[in-house]
Amino acid sequence: MHIDRKSGNRKKINKTTFSFSDFVDLSLIEILTLQFLLRHSEPVVRHTLYLEVNQFLQSEETTSEVLEKENLAGSKSMYSTLLKNKSQLSTSSFYNSLKNLEKKGLVDYKLNKKGKIESIKAKELTHAAIDVIRKHFLRMGLIIDNKIVFESAQEVFKEIGQDHFNNVLLIWPHEHLTFVLLQFLTKISNSSFILCKKELFKNIIQNRITGINFVQMYNKMIREPNDIFDFILFFFVDIEKKLFGLSRYDLLKESARVAKKNGGVVIVMNFRELPFTDNEMTNQLINMYHQANIHQISNSQKLKKEMEKVGFSKIKIVEHKGLIFGLGWV
């Protein structure tokens, strides 16, 4: 709630959230234009903005040595031909991009007395768009090599004392799922189960992935009896977000209920929290990394504290190459 200082009345502020899909139709030129526009605290002349974007496109900052690699074969020659014919960004193309951005409400035109465009300025949505896009690419750009994932799994299995189970339940609250994880699930168990959204499971079936059984919620409980699963994988998300109608804490308690006595519940937080340094530029990058992956980051103390609330008989935190896992025994 917000209190109006003049009237003293309370005003409800409606919060608007944006996702990557809201800006998915922006072109690369439009994204670059927004980035350069945000460098200006005051309105900037349209042609000046064009020169900045075009100079950047022609600079060495945009090159990569990947084309020097011999194994690119045919694609190398094709792309090299394209580079030879590369021309500067035309003013007409750039101005059309600005028109598109203005129609989307991402930039504002400042007109002169004759009604012609004098300058361009950023809007609040400009900041939101770049923030969402940056976080998306920071999150997606952190590619975890399968080798590291399997090495980490081996470390976890060492702590548990076995690497194959009769049945395993995967609790997956996210919107999408990599098929590599499903393959891994079927590899380590005789029977594999997944608690996820119905739409996601339909996608799994449509992709003809077999050997995965669907688990549902009923009356805010996992629709399975007590003491049934040997091993449970629980992938965490935002602590304030409801998961299948339950708080994260209540769903974690449910996972402990359906785990067999002496069975294990493994909580997976994708990334370990990074420590800040005495270098301000490095700290800015670390802060961006934390913000982009806020639901996938934790540290040993936070994770252990949350697991202790559930009442596991034994708790062990395993960290391996930047990944963090919480092991709880029932």
Structure, described:
The chain is of the alpha/beta class. The chain folds into two domains: 2-141, Winged helix-like DNA-binding domain superfamily/Winged helix DNA-binding domain (Arc Repressor Mutant, subunit A, Orthogonal Bundle); 146-329, 3-Layer(aba) Sandwich (Rossmann fold). It is 41% helix and 22% strand. The protein has eleven helices and 15 strands. Strands 7-6-5-10-11-15-14 form a seven-stranded mixed sheet, sandwiched between helices. The protein has a two-stranded antiparallel ribbon with strand order 1-2. A two-stranded antiparallel ribbon has the order 3-4. The protein is elongated, with a radius of gyration of 25 Å. The model is unreliable at 1-7 (pLDDT under 50).
Provide a quick synopsis of the model.
The chain has 330 residues and is an alpha/beta fold. It is built from eleven helices and 15 strands. Mean pLDDT is 80; it is low at 1-7.
